[in-house]
Amino acid sequence: MGETNLSQFGITFKGSGSYIPKQILTNEDLSRIVDTSDKWIKTRTGISKRRISSIHESVCQMGYEAALRAMEMANWSPDTIDLILLATSTPNDLFGSAPRIQSKLGAKNATAFDLTAACSGFLFSLITGAQYLQNGSFKRALIIGADQLSSYVNWLDRGSCILFGDGAGALAIEASDDINNFYGFQMKTDGERGGFLNLSVCGSEEEIIDDIKVNKGKFSNITMNGQEVYKFAVREVPIVIDNLLKQLNYNSSEVDWLLLHQANQRILDAVGERLNIPKEKVLSNLNNYGNTSAGTIPLMLDESIRNKKVKQNDLIATSGFGAGLSWGAALFRWG
Ligand code: ACO
After folding, report:
1. CATH no. for residue 273?
2. Rounded CA gap, 7 and 131, in Å?
3. Do 6 and 139 fall into the same domain?
4. How far is it, in rounded angstroms, from Cα 255 to Cα 173?
5. How far apart are CA 78 and CA 103, in angstroms?
6. Per-residue pLDDT at 108
7. Are 296 and 166 a contacting pair, CB within 8 Å?
8. What is the pLDDT of residues 153-192, one digit of tens each?
9. Are residues 9 and 116 in the same domain?
10. Which amino acids bring their CB within 6 angstroms of ligand 1?
11. If pLDDT is split at 50, 70 and 90, which confidence band does 7 have?
């Protein structure tokens, strides 16, 4: 549970950026791979197309492009950045990809590391970054969400391959002596239900010398129990947002925008309805990109800021949810 009243510094939001890969995969294209149709996918998910990254659009590259744009909007020079967090489940390097983005940006004074929490990854990274800023350890942070799930999708599984796409987004946040626009958060995980959505190691045993076997590292495709994930999201997300609003003494009618992890339009609609937030206030770009995992929240926010839908001082309730299972919410004002 978030404790904003113990903070020494406030948080302000200074910039946003995003990157979407060039290749477009439509529902029609998918219907040539698996037994599905544009109509089925649109009706059940709200998705029409998604972006698929090429070999030149790795998580590092996409994350770098998004971070660069956020840094430019914030008008920061690279050497003034203290912290770079990369939310990803699909790093270029399991030892960490954030330092590579740091080096590409020329942010030589920053500390950079990865954080993995699937589709909650961006929210968890934003909350983590905010702690360092609030307690005075760092002043400027870039929070990046980037994923390339297309590398791990089973393209013959019609129950999951229709949902996912690739992309990245980033936010630039700064500690402030006198303004606080990050009001609070809640975070939750439940490993008991972790088997509903996985991207697991499927290592094979390899004997390296007599009687000593190693588990050779390799990842299997994404496996998902779609119905259970759906029920989990529709039940838990309204509860966590409602609890957060109550904790912070806000009413859902005061929220300007509901910024949910983009998983399925029916999940977005159901959460909005349960919170009594009208459809026009529920941000959605699922139609174009599908579920880009840790990328969705900053990608959606960046688009909304750049097309002037979200304005300075707008109140935003955000929620990430997904594998782990993990979920959470945060309330903040843009600016
Ligand atoms: N095209 C056509 N038919 C399909 C397809 C498809 N792509 N997929 C499933 N079907 C069929 C099923 O076989 C089933 O047929 P049957 O009735 O003859 O058995 C029927 O459609 C209904 O299947 P359901 O699984 O009940 O379909 P549902 O309405 O639940 O939609 C979906 C499936 C879209 C996967 C939905 O459950 C969902 O969105 N779940 C949430 C998944 C999610 O958001 N995951 C990501 C979380 S974030 C993260 O951390 C990565």
Report:
1. 3.40.47.10
2. 8
3. yes
4. 21
5. 10
6. 97
7. no
8. 999 999 999 999 999 999 999 999 999 999 999 999 999 9
9. yes
10. 36, 40-41, 44-45, 118-119, 158-159, 162-163, 197, 224, 226-227, 229-230, 263-264, 291, 293, 322-323
11. low
